[in-house]
Write a structure and sequence with these properties.
This protein is mainly alpha-helical. It has one domain. It has helices at residues 2-19, 39-48, 50-53, 68-82, 93-108, 115-120, 128-141. Helix 5 (93-108) packs antiparallel against helix 7.
Length: 142
């Protein structure tokens, strides 16, 4: 049994080393445009939203270590697909209205930022004041 556990441990270590060589796309495409907001709201977005919802992602050290790198890169890819503030001006009015409605829903239901992002980025947690500023902006534009 002990020999079997040692072999299993060696296989796991070898697999962890091997997956470090699997390429992960961590890019920040050119910023085409940016959502126009007050400096106060822009600071909130940069602190709590831009890592996943813009082309200005700050890739932390752990985003370079597999398998976490796969998860982080996928979250950023999905976040940008759902809402990308770096392309806000490219959205038509109907899409902007839909995104604003989704922002309101996500904030009111405390779904954003996601809990596991806040674990590694506690400063991204939205205060009640932050939420009110975001909601006021989103409702005013929609």
């Amino acid at each position: 049994m002990k020999r079997w556990l040692v072999r299993l441990g060696c296989i796991l270590v070898a697999a962890l080393v091997a997956i470090q060589f699997v390429p992960v796309q961590r890019t920040n495409p050119r910023v085409e445009s940016d959502v126009q907001t007050s400096p106060e709201l822009k600071a909130i977005f940069r602190r709590a939203c831009y890592d996943c919802h813009s082309n200005e992602t700050v890739w932390p050290w752990y985003s370079h270590i597999a398998p976490i790198s796969f998860l982080v890169a996928n979250d950023v890819k999905e976040g940008r697909r759902e809402l990308n503030f770096s392309g806000w001006d490219q959205y038509n009015e109907q899409r902007k209205a839909r995104k604003l409605k989704e922002i309101v829903e996500q904030i009111e239901e405390n779904k954003m930022p996601q809990w596991y992002y806040i674990l590694m980025h506690p400063d991204a947690k939205l205060s009640q004041s932050d939420k009110e500023i975001i909601l006021k902006w989103a409702k005013q534009l929609s």
